[in-house]
Design a protein that fits this description.
By secondary structure, the chain is an all-alpha fold. It contains 10 helices and no strands. The protein has 2 domains: about 60 residues, Homeodomain-like (Arc Repressor Mutant, subunit A); about 130 residues, Tetracycline Repressor, domain 2 (Orthogonal Bundle). Helix 6 packs antiparallel against helix 8.
């Protein structure tokens, strides 16, 4: 498993997250681990698989991440942070809910299209990390991501421009269809990229939460 087989786009994200020169071995381990996990699944991939793929010792893996679960969590948080930056680039400063929903959905599907390996890993590992020792850290980062978005939508709920929906239902209505399509695309069941349907998915998300007169 050669390093060249890991797409350059993945290496760019890892270099942005771990820019120090001394972190090169750690970046290599994360890149090759991503490829193993996506190909084989979390459970089926062993520490020895990761050792062989990365060319590093088991001791080095444990030194950096303590165990396989720690490596999975570290990789997921890097992916989540990169996705969050892409979302923030489109949503920062928006105060109107229609524009906010459109920007959120567009950023979400554009990032998945641009980073399919990391997107696939998020879907693969999110639940496992949520239930593990890094679950609180993951929840905190997602809360920080969505805090300004939630505040914007809450204002328009109060102003009766949005439906008065249970708070826990809104993410499913806004991002659920985009996520379902993205999963199908990543699995090879759809040909057109998620980004190519951004406008339609964004408008569908808006209609799911907006009052008819909004």
């Amino acid at each position: 498993m050669a390093a060249a087989s890991v797409p350059a786009r993945v290496h760019r994200v890892l270099e942005s997250s771990l820019p120090e020169a001394r972190a090169s071995a750690k970046r290599q381990l994360l890149a090759e681990s991503l490829r193993c996990f996506n190909a084989r699944g979390l459970e089926a991939t062993t520490i020895d698989d990761l050792r062989m793929a990365s060319g590093q010792s088991v001791g080095t893996i444990y030194h950096h991440f303590k165990n396989k679960e720690g490596l999975i969590a570290a990789l997921l948080l890097i992916a989540i942070d990169d996705q969050s930056r892409a979302i923030a680039a489109r949503t920062d400063g928006l105060t109107e809910s229609h524009a906010m929903v459109a920007a959120l959905v567009t950023a979400y599907v554009e990032w998945i299209t641009a980073q399919p390996e990391l997107a696939n890993f998020i879907f693969l590992a999110r639940e496992a990390v949520t239930k593990g020792p890094q679950g609180d850290e993951l929840s905190a980062r997602l809360a920080t991501r969505y805090e300004p978005i939630d505040a914007c939508l809450a204002r328009d709920v109060q102003a009766r421009r949005l439906l008065d929906l249970p708070e826990e239902l809104i993410p499913a209505l806004v991002l659920g269809p985009a996520e379902a399509y993205a999963r199908a695309w990543l699995a090879g069941r759809r040909l057109a990229t998620p980004a190519s349907h951004a406008a339609l998915l964004a408008e569908a998300a808006w209609r799911a939460v907006a009052r008819a007169e909004a």
